[in-house]
Amino acid sequence: MVEPLVKRAYETEKKAAASYTDGLGLIRGQGLRYTKVEDVVGRIAVDTIIHKHLMKAILEAQKELEKLAGEGPIEEVKEVELVPEQKALVKRFAEMHLEIEKDMIETYQKMAEKMTHPLFKGLAEALVENEKEHHRILAELIAKYRE
């Protein structure tokens, strides 16, 4: 289970972010503003704050996913024959979400182009690929139940 590791990472990043922020204040107070020392510590402080918030977001996502999982992972995926009403429902559902996925692909692509921090840029680029995969799967579902 990854949750304890994420909690540990979050707590560690939280402490580190506070320490880097305090340290940055001390460094600046010692007349080291606009120096290489401030630059290095500042860059690490920024990354650490981002890490802290990413770990918190992962923890929150894991809690939400636990509710969604219900009884746990699906043991066996069965292929069943759908009646026309079920096919129409699945097709409508997939078409509606296909538009959402298209919008998210475009949004994440624009974010990736505009992001300057490498962590944010990499995350946006990874999200683009994830949304493209969703789009592909939904398009396959629509094609399968088109009648």
UniProtKB/TrEMBL annotation:
InterPro entries: Ferritin-like, Ferritin-like_SF, Rr_diiron-bd_dom. Residues 8-141 form the Rubrerythrin diiron-binding domain. It comes from the Archaea. One of its GO terms (molecular function) is oxidoreductase activity. Signal peptide: none annotated. This is Rubrerythrin family protein.
